[in-house]
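Quick start: read one record
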Amino acid sequence: NVLNNVLLGYRLRGERITEKLKTNAKELLEQVGLSHAMHQLPHTLSGGMKQRTALARTLIHHQPIVLMDEPFSALDAISRFRLQTLAANLLKDRTVLLVTHDTLEALRLADIIYVLSRTTAHLSEAITPTSKTPRDPSDHKTLELQAKLLHKLDEEIQS
């Protein structure tokens, strides 16, 4: 079920699932909007619910380095916005490598942004927003950086 799925990493490492850990998982499921579904089986979930389960499974661990590949891609706009904010707050003071195709998502969450080239594996010059994350998507500096990032992506496609 969803609750056990969130705790899967602990089980795979052979760690004991304590009541405190279960409580933490339930609180996290509440935060991602899945407390009502914690006893459902994965095959009964929508794509967005599966995405939120995977996010909770990542966020429950307190690892110093977190790798995230399109963690918000299957979510509607409001869920995406809320869960980006949740992830930004829970992952403060950790190193996070976030892969995304969403320019605004990158700008809301990242301290350093690189564009990976399409043809050869090389990184662009870094774009470094200066304000605190999660950034306000309507902030004029964020919007200016989004335009710069979109132009950089367009240039990459043209070359």
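The longest strand covers residues 65-69.
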